[in-house]
Structures are given as C-alpha cells and as structure tokens.
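Lab meeting minutes (informal)
Scribe: AK
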Amino acid sequence: MSNGDAAMRKRHNRQQPVCRLVLVRHATAEGDGRFQGQADVELSPEGRRELPALWRKLRRYKITAAYASDLCRARVTAAFAARRLGVRLEIRVGLREIDCGRWQGLSWEQVREQSPQFARLWAKQFPHRRVPGGEGFVEFKTRIRRELRAIAVANPAQSVLVVTHAGVIRVALASALGMPDRNLFRFALDPCGLSVIDHFRHGAVVRCVND
C-alpha cells in the first residue's frame, strides 16, 4: 500500500460515512446462467430456499431502509429481507440490469452459435460494442451511478440495503475502485452474494465483495 493510499484509508476511517450501501445480488432465478437482462423472470425454488440465509447475513448490519430493482427476482428477494429487518422497501426502476436486447433468455453458447463473429467481437471489444437491440454500456453505467448516488445522498450516515443485479453491482464496485470497465467480469457475484461500499463525500471504500 502506498503512503497516499494509507493516508486516504485513515482519513476515511476517521470520517462518518455519508452512506453504507449493502449491495445484494438477487436470489437464484429461473434461467440462471443466461443473459436475463430486463426479462422479468421469477425466483427458482432454489432461490426461495436461499432467502433465510441471506436474512441471517444481513442482520449484522444496522439497515434502516431497503431499495430494489422492480424486476421480480430482485423485488421478491428484497421484500423477504425488508419484512424481516423491519424496514421500508422502495422500488426503483433505475436499478434494473442492463437491457440485453436480442440476447435476453439466451446462454452464451446459444449466442455464439447464432452469431459467432459478433460474439467474438463483443467479447473482445467490451464495453464498447452494444448488444443488438440492447442498452449501451455508457448509458447503463451512467444510470446506475446516478441511482446509487441518489440513494446515498438520501440516507446520510445510514446503512441501506440495495437488492439488484450482477451488472449493477459490478459497476458500483468498479467505480469505487477506479477499475477499467473491461475488467468488470473479474468480480464473481453469486446469487444472494453481499458486497459493501462505504460512500464518503470525496470517495468510497469497498468493505467486502460477494460475502
């Protein structure tokens, strides 16, 4: 760790966080492993069995409010946790996953079979190539950063639960760490995986990833 990094960490540790975001990927959904994007799929039976363990993990945080994507898999996960934590749940459309366009519902193997050349280009040029009919990555990233910033500002010195999607959490983590967008997929984010980011007035600290 450089002297500059150490000084920044000490300064953040002395400050009261503007907001602690407890980011959770939704429980396992039907069609897990495919490009689900903004398809409104439900939780699988396995996903519903995962919910009690998620609640037990969340009890260690003093959560005062909960937010979720409006898509069923995130909304149901968040509602279960919010009821047991005794906090209000707010649904925000802006927390949706990236729109995967024509790839929604397909596995990567199916994408490569249907469009082998485009699939190679997409993988090589990510995030600069848009999925056919889908949302551009720059627009997605701007949307997510705006939503999370609004949540942090609305909850000063509080810990809040945000139940959303893998792509959303990857953007949040990469932004906090200053990582290049092309490295987003280096984060493993399991269903009900929990990541924590403390937001300060001038920066952020990642406390844990995929707990």
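Next up, CB showed the second protein from the same session:
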Amino acid sequence: MIGFLKGTLVAKHPPQLLVEVGGVGYEVDAPMSTFYQLPDAGQPVTLLTHFLVRDDAQVLFGFATEAERQLFRSLIKVGGVGARIALAILSGISVEAFARCVHAEDAAALTRIPGVGRKTADRLIVEMRDRLKQSSSALAQAMPEGMPASAGDEAFDALVALGYKPAEATRLLKKVENMATDTEGLIRAALQAAAR
C-alpha cells in the first residue's frame, strides 16, 4: 500500500497530477479540492494517497488532507458510488459541507454535484450518516452534533443557487475567504472576483 507521496509536482491537468518521487513519476488522480491547494509545477508537494486495484486498472488517488482521504474511502464503500463519483463529490463540495448535508438530510444540495442523482443522494444520506459519526477523528470532526452552517457554507449555497457550478463556487470563495467573515460579505466579494 502507498500511504503518501512526497516529491516534486511535475504537472497538473485535472483530474490528474504527475509527481516525481526519487526519479519515478507517479500519475495521481485528485479532486479539485486538492488541486486548489497545490503549489506550482516544479515545487515540492506531499499528498496522502489511496491505491485502488481493479480488474481493469490500478489507480493512485491523492488528497491534500486526511479528512478528504477518509471521506473518499467511506464514499467508495457506498453501493453505486465508485471512485469517479467519489472524486466528483470531493470536487464539488467540501468535507464539512458534505457532512452538513448528510446531517441535515439535504438530498437536494447533494444532487447539485455533477454525477449525483436523487437516488444516489438518498443512498449517500442513509449510508454515510453512521459512517461519518463512527469514522476516525479527522472525518468525525467534520460532523459535530447540531453543527451550525458557517458563513462560507451559506455563501457556497447562495452561489450555487445563482447558477455557479459547485467547483467554481468553491474556487471563488477560496479566493476571497480572508476578505469577509459574514455570509453577505463573502457573497459580494466572490461575485466581484468573478466579474474581474
């Protein structure tokens, strides 16, 4: 099993990365949430990994945080959710926002993620509720009981309601996260960033 890679980021072409470690180039598939945290090509990088062996392929997946990797591992155990849909979920919503959707049984928010239909969203809510509570600390911390929505999550929901794709809304909010602390300020700053 390959637990992590520490080397030089050679190339990044979503959803794939090329990381050189000791003269060997590893092709790694990663969600957009990880891409947003990557350095420029040629810079050192460390990625937590999950190695998936199937009949037709061997694929290495990379993640910026332990919570992302744990959520990915939990998602691929859900019936009908393969690695590609798990990557799409991590690309379209943060770990915390996903946990909040499951906790609130908000299937409508999950169906906004490309590749997630109503049946899949319902299955995710049913199967992930207990897994999130029982999982190890990094992922369990994303789902405290009675968690309130943060300004960032409310701003994310508002941008998606305005027609932005989840990945684009996440990217815009990442750009402006230090410009405001309230929901209205974050939305305004994100819309101004999008207009530039």
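CB comment: The beta strands are 4-13, 16-21, 24-29, 44-53, 58-63.
No objections, moving on.
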